[in-house]
Amino acid sequence: MKYFGNSIFNFSILSIHRGVLLFVATVFLMIIGTGYSSENFTVLEHNKVIDQSGFIHLFGQIRNISNETQKTVTAHANFYDKGGHNIGNASGITSLRSLNIGEVSPFEIVFLDKNQTNQFFNYTLNFTSEIGDNKPDNLVITSLKSRPDIFGYYYVSGRISNMGNDTATNVLAIASFFDNNSRMIGLSSAIAEPSNMTSHSISSFTVVMDDKIQSSKIKNFSLLIDSDQYTSR
Questions:
Q1: Looking at the predicted structure, is the pLDDT value of residue 99 above 60?
Q2: What pLDDT was estimated at residue 39?
Q3: CA proximity to 90, closest of 61, 112, 69, 73
Q4: How many other CB atoms sit within 10 Å of the CB of residue 112?
Q5: Domains in the chain, ordered, with CATH?
Q6: Residue 188's CB: how many other CB atoms inside 10 A?
Q7: Contact present, 75 and 92 (Cβ < 8 Å)
Q8: What is the 3-state secondary structure (H, E, C) of the chain?
């Protein structure tokens, strides 16, 4: 489950079905071929941001609506100009290594061709995944705080407890950041210290939002903890 900051978010849910095209403003989601598993996910929200270096970032969140755990979930984007011409593509793996049934994960896609940034008009999204194994939610966030600093960075830090009977390896803290309109404007993660947590041990983490343009707009955030064996409550 996801731990939220100071606000509860109400996102519009877009259901994606095979062969159905949904338009949202100038942004649309499209299913485009064999092997794509977009029917396994609902897009909760998505947003475009241009960072301080001029790169386009697509941020969003998806929910696993299938009847099986999905792993290696990858978001794919195609980018278009006003004339509908393809100006490039990019992809990114969701932040959670696997999504249990009903679970939500953020994702980020970065379009690295800055020469095309001014030509950008809209994009399509689709998703691929594989069937995975369920992860118990045995990682518990026991403390949490956030703050901006004088240099324009935004920090989220806290502590995690492993309530499972097994060691949790490669423990990762994942923070999603939102503006005052509940639009996702950033995504950052950090390895916990220590990164391997034995049963009933505690780790700490600090996640940094280092895009100064967007960090000044942060109103709220949400936090997930993931590992090879467990996810967060």
A1: yes
A2: 86
A3: 112
A4: 9
A5: 3-131 (2.60.40.3230), 139-226 (2.60.40.3230)
A6: 21
A7: yes
A8: CCEECCCCCCCCCEECCCCCCEEECCEEECCCCCCCCHHHEEEEEEEEEECCCCCEEEEEEEEECCCCCEEEEEEEEEEECCCCCEEEEEEEECCCCEECCCCEEEEEEEECCHHHHHHCCEEEEEEEEEECCCCCCCEEEEEEEEEECCCCCEEEEEEEEECCCCCECCCEEEEEEECCCCCEEEEEEEECECCCECCCCEEEEEEEECCHHHHCCCCEEEEEEECCCCEEC
Distance from the Cα of residue 97 to its chain's centroid: 11
Contact 113, 90 (CB under 8 A): no
Cβ atoms of residues 221 and 146 within 8 Å: yes
**Whole-prediction pTM value?**
0.82
216 band by pLDDT with thresholds 50, 70 and 90: very high
C-alpha 176: how far from chain center: 7
